[in-house]
Protein: Succinate dehydrogenase cytochrome b556 subunit
Organism: Candidatus Riesia pediculischaeffi
Amino acid sequence: MNKKNLINLDLDIRKLPINAMVSILHRISGIMNIFFLMWIVKKICCTVEYREKFFTVLSFRSCSSKIIFYIFCISFIYHVLSGVRHMLIDFNIIGYSITISKVSSVLTIISTFVIFFLLCFL
């Protein structure tokens, strides 16, 4: 009987380029934004009945609420900047070359964190 051995494929060899990662993360951040918005709307709707509870919920005093809110801010900022990047590429304003695509991908990631820190911590 001829038995074939399983071949271990090392999938770490194939790394995705930065522009592909930015495109995939753009889709993931869009899905995350939907869930974050539902969470925020649910949080606000639960507190409409109690006027004194409303401002305590919106202040995000608990640590988990702050972390979720910061993740939402990063996701939203990234999604907007990546969307602008995709629109500039689609309208052929910045071009289709690989180097431009890689540079714009890196700029999108860097500017996301710069804008996040400027908006949330200053």
